[in-house]
User: What shape does this take?
Amino acid sequence: MKTEISYQFESSQVANRFLHELKNWSVNDVKTRLFNGGDSVKVSYDYDETGFDYTIAELDDLAEQLGGKEV
Assistant: This one.
């Protein structure tokens, strides 16, 4: 199942840092893109249906470390 979540950051610089962190991310294979003027990142990934999927919790933690929030 395809899952999509969006995060907003204080600036496009921080959004780009989040985006680059996810390029080499080990938790799950995610696809990312900037939107909303460059200060937001949309993340999509395939939900692991074999058990509990920690991907969203890990994404939330990483975004929070950079001052981002889910929108």
About this structure: The longest helix spans residues 12-23. The first strand starts at residue 2 and ends at 8. The chain has a mean pLDDT of 93. Strands lie at 2-8, 30-35, 40-46, 69-70.
